[in-house]
Known about the structure:
Residues 36-95 form the DUF4351 domain. The protein is an all-alpha fold and 98 residues long.
Amino acid sequence: xxxxxEQLSRAEVEIMLGITLQQTRVYREIKEEGRQExxxxxxxxxxxxxxxxxxxxxxxxxxxxxxSHLPLTVLENLSIALLDFTSLADLQAWLDAQ
Length: 98
């Protein structure tokens, strides 16, 4: 509904509708999605850094992209599995098995 009133500020829309947007379910859902995306992004960055350190070389853009598209639960599994990796082949085999 807010998009129907693009010319109005958030405060003006809230006054007009008599609600606080932060109290709406839509606002809470959007906020939660943003929190999850931020957590996923931070986890991917950390895992790429750990893998780079563990394997002694930078990961290819393609491999980083593959990792960045993994669901959070799989990323959590990767964060444990990477402790056993000794080469890029180990990482690739693990990714292929997912």
